[in-house]
């Protein structure tokens, strides 16, 4: 099988490593079949889609709606790298799954509105699938209503013109969407459990997601929220694309300059 590519953007080692471990658990892959690249550490370069079964993008402290002058050089470079990647991924309809940061990245790239109108505090929300979500081969493996963890300052308030809404919550109008047949993004974290949330609360205690004095209560609330398992959407994504056929876009033309990141 061709491996999957996981793109991380977290500058802090502890939450970055914990996120990768969670992705391994939730996809059912191992380090040989889910290759990690930390985008905050070095430029991505070109990606040869022929080398991969699919691409996953994790979350992080960056917000695409940050004031441009306030973005660090690293953040601007990561955004440019991902925009260039999506310039190839979306036309090829290549399997892609972006979580949290991914919904802002893909949403903006596809012409949606990403702003601060619908933030959700760190904790549990109830996600509801739309009819399209229930029928979707990846998102539809989740229950029609399920609990998941979120924590974001920005969100997608207007869906991109070509996107299909797959899920929503009471506090965010877009919890998941799809572009084409194979390009996905979620606002909620499909890899995150209460232990992982506790790790991130400690790492981002002073990043403005919550009052630092309330960090312990945020963790307690998460542990008592009733969210015990993550929806199996990441495993469904992997199982759908682990053996690529023409229906995924593999048979479509790939630009000749895709000669960069490859496994091994």
UniProtKB/TrEMBL annotation:
<protein>
    <submittedName>
        <fullName>Glutamine amidotransferase</fullName>
    </submittedName>
</protein>
<dbReference type="InterPro" id="IPR017926">
    <property type="entry name" value="GATASE"/>
</dbReference>
<dbReference type="InterPro" id="IPR044992">
    <property type="entry name" value="ChyE-like"/>
</dbReference>
<dbReference type="InterPro" id="IPR029062">
    <property type="entry name" value="Class_I_gatase-like"/>
</dbReference>
<keyword id="KW-0315">Glutamine amidotransferase</keyword>
<feature type="domain" description="Glutamine amidotransferase">
    <location>
        <begin position="50"/>
        <end position="192"/>
    </location>
</feature>
<dbReference type="Pfam" id="PF00117">
    <property type="entry name" value="GATase"/>
</dbReference>
């Amino acid at each position: 099988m061709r491996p999957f590519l996981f793109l991380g953007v977290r500058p802090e080692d502890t939450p970055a490593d914990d996120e990768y471990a969670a992705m391994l658990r939730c996809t059912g892959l191992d380090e040989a079949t889910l290759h990690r690249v930390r985008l905050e550490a070095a430029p991505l370069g070109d990606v040869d889609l022929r080398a991969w079964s699919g691409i996953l993008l994790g979350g992080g402290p960056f917000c695409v709606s940050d004031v441009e002058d306030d973005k660090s050089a690293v953040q601007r470079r990561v955004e440019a790298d991902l925009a260039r990647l999506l310039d190839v991924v979306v036309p090829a309809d290549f399997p892609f799954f972006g979580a949290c940061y991914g919904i802002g990245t893909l949403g903006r790239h596809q012409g949606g509105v990403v702003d601060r109108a619908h933030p959700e505090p760190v904790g549990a929300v109830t996600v509801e699938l739309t009819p399209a979500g229930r029928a979707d081969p990846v998102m539809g493996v989740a229950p029609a209503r399920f609990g998941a963890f979120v924590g974001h300052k920005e969100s997608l308030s207007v869906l991109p013109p070509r996107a299909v809404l797959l899920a929503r919550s009471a506090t965010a109008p877009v919890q998941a969407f799809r572009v084409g047949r194979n390009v996905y993004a979620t606002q909620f974290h499909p890899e995150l459990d209460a232990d992982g949330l506790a790790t991130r609360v400690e790492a981002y205690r002073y990043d403005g997601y919550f009052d630092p004095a309330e960090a312990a209560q945020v963790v307690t609330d998460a542990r008592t929220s009733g969210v015990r398992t993550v929806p199996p959407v990441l495993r469904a994504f992997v199982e759908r694309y682990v053996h690529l056929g023409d229906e995924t876009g593999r048979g479509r033309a790939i630009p000749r300059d895709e000669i960069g990141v490859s496994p091994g």
